Amino acid sequence: MLNYTLKRLGVALLVLSVVSVLTFGFTNVAVDPAHAIAGEGASDRDIEAVRKAYGFDRPLHVQYTEWLGNWLSGDMGTSIRQRRPVTELLAERFPTTMALGAASLLLALSIGVPLGVAAAMRPNSWIDRSALVVAVLGMATPTFWFALMLMLVFGVMLRWLPVSGTDTLWHYVLPSIALAYYVIPTVMRLTRAGMIEVLSSDYIRTARAKGLKRPQVLFKHALRNAMIPVVALAAVQFGHLLGGSVVVEAVFALQGVGYLAWESIKTADLPVVQAVVIVLSVFYVTLTFLSDLLNAFLDPRIRIH
Amino acid sequence: MSPQDTATVPGPLPGAMDIPERHAETRRERLAARVFGHVGLRIGGIIVLSILLIAIFAPWIVPHDPYLQDLGNRRVPPIWHAWFYDHPQASWTHPLGTDNIGRDYLSRLIYGARISMLIGVLAMVISGALGTALGVAAGYFGGRIDMVVNFFITTRLSVPLILAALAVVSLYGGSITIIIVVLGCLIWDRFAVVMRSVTMQIRNLEYVTAARAIGCSSARIILSEIMPNVANALVVVATLEMAHAILLEATLSFLGLGVQPPEPSWGLMLSEAKGDMFFSPWMITIPGVALFTLVMGINMLGDGLRDVSAPENRN
Q: Which segments of chain B does DSSP mark as H helices, in order?
């Protein structure tokens, strides 16, 4: 297990260093950062002055080493447009995005798992088929359009829920639904597949044969085992949700990290963009790493491979 | 040829030469029956084909110039507002109404199909080429190459997709070419994953071993033994990724960092209509329905192709 953990950790760190080089490369080589800071319509001399002042005239590997050193000591740079440390901006916005991500994940699990179980209990029944239809429809609906339709129906026509802002918990309802909508099909299909496999296994037949009650077999014996891949998936999906929150936060004007990223991309605020991309990658890599470990811990066959 | 086929051939009789041909025909007929008998495949195929034809012949079928502004006729509602709400402005002149600067909505929707189709197909081709090359190489050679490709896949997956696409497109400007290249370079992961596992399954089958034993080069084995046998899986992933690319383009354009105005991308139409959603809700409904229909059609086509080509459905 230790061997496996170290191997996975090594891969995770390598992935992160490649992501950091890519991010740095795209924001420092692919575009001229001095140009971005000086803004539209700056004269050549202004750009040259900015380049000197920020040290963009030095060799790239020197800049990268310095940048990485700053990052590792917790300094993510300063926002060009807002003139504030990026760490401060992120700390301000993170709670909103985390709350949104957690709420969506909870919602997705609490809808996706029961639907998957119901579908697995009677394959090809009407429940199974309608769950499949929901999944197929969900895959074809653009998240931002679904979010707009939610706003239109529940915010504008029915006036049940607020359509933008973060003042109360009610403000999170529509954004969470919009974000969860896109995870529900995956959770549902994985639960269904897991349950179908588990329900046909020997120990379930044994449990039934010794006369245990149906709910007990279903929930205590079957669901517990079928949930292993779903839990691992949930961790990975949480990373995806944080990335997908850009769209939902932009639609609902929710002041989270996604909204910050969107604003910063539009205004070419490169340090902030860099920071959001890397922080989300770190999140994703960490969650995947943990879910790999969980899987390996629960299923020893994975460790040997 | 299956065992029964050879069993029915009654030796070298006169006319025995047509038997393989007749078999080829029945096989084609059986395939046709499977293709046309699959409801989802039929519906998906009709949807995708119709939208493709609309996209190709857009200049000849649009009722108005999609870029022409008519400030006197802004936010004209679609024709059904005349039927159900007796709206005085709604008429057949603008069957789907006009947008906030008086451009004909139907014409813009038709031109939008061109952008979606173009980006969907080309991004799918680029990502398919990249992903298939990586996946087949990893699956066929295994070992170090497999490790490196796996690392590429892991790295690609750890980059937040929408955010990376937004950032890169905004750095280089939102031209259609840039969007195609960026999306193509970002969504190859599923191709690589699927092609890798499919190739691994067949690389040790007898016919591949046989080809290797008679001294075929790796390139030849990959092209003439592996590729034809992974084609089914490839087509299915290709449809999924085409739908994915279309949704991503719409998302980028909706966020204002994809296709730039005045081009009529469906995502951009939604973004422009967002401000009017309170008074003219049809303006955000129509492009969304178009997008949904196209993606749904492509997915149905992909699912149908998978069902039809799945080995367990053969014969």
A: 3-8, 18-37, 39-56, 58-61, 80-85, 105-141, 143-158, 161-172, 176-186, 189-202, 206-213, 218-220, 227-254, 266-273, 282-309
Amino acid residing at B67: Y
pLDDT beyond 80 at B35: no
Which three-class secondary structure state does DSSP give residue B222?
Answer: helix
Task: Compare CB distances from B247 to A142, A280, A285 and report the shortest one's residue.
Answer: A142
Residue A62: how many other CB atoms lie within 10 Å:
10
Cis ω for the linkage preceding B262 (within 30 of 0): yes
Cα separation values, B199 from A44, A281, A302, B205, B222, Å: 54, 30, 21, 10, 9
Cβ within 8 Å, pair A141-B166: no
Residue B47: the pLDDT is: 94
* Binary contact (B250, A142; C-beta < 8 A): yes
Task: Kindly report whether the global pTM for this prediction surpasses the value 0.80.
Answer: yes
Q: pLDDT band at B312, cuts 50/70/90?
A: low
**Nearest-10 crossing angle of helices B143-158, A270-298:** 120
Please calculate the CA angle A20-A26-A32 and round it to the nearest 5 degrees.
130
Segment A107-135, tens digit of pLDDT: 999 988 888 888 888 877 888 888 888 88
B49 vs A157, residue with greater confidence:
B49
ipTM for the predicted complex: 0.85
What is the percentage of chain B residues whose pLDDT exceeds 70? 90
Residues ≥6 apart with Cβ < 8 Å to B265? B112, B115, B116, B249, B250, B253, B258, B259
Compute the mean pLDDT over every residue in chain A, rounded to the nearest whole number: 84
Quote the pLDDT of residue B4. 45
Distances (CA, A) of A75 to A69, A88, B232: 9, 10, 50
CA distances from B195 to A79, A128, A247, B131, B192 (A): 42, 30, 30, 8, 5
Instruction: Please tell me the distance from the alpha carbon of residue B14 to that of residue B24, in angstroms, as a whole number.
Output: 19
A140 CB neighbours in chain B (<8 A) are 243, 292, 295-296, 299
How confident is the model over B216-247, as pLDDT tens digits? Answer: 898 899 988 899 888 888 998 999 999 999 99
CB contacts under 8 A, A 85-114 vs B, are none
Mean pLDDT of chain B: 85
Are the C-beta atoms of residues A241 and A183 closer than 8 Å to each other? yes
Q: What angle do CA B53, B57, B60 make, to 5 degrees?
A: 145
Using a CB-CB distance cutoff of 8 angstroms, which residues of chain A are in contact with residue B155?
Answer: 15, 18-19
Whole-number pLDDT of residue A304 = 66
Give the nearest partner residue to B159 out of A19, A148, A152, using CB atoms. Answer: A19
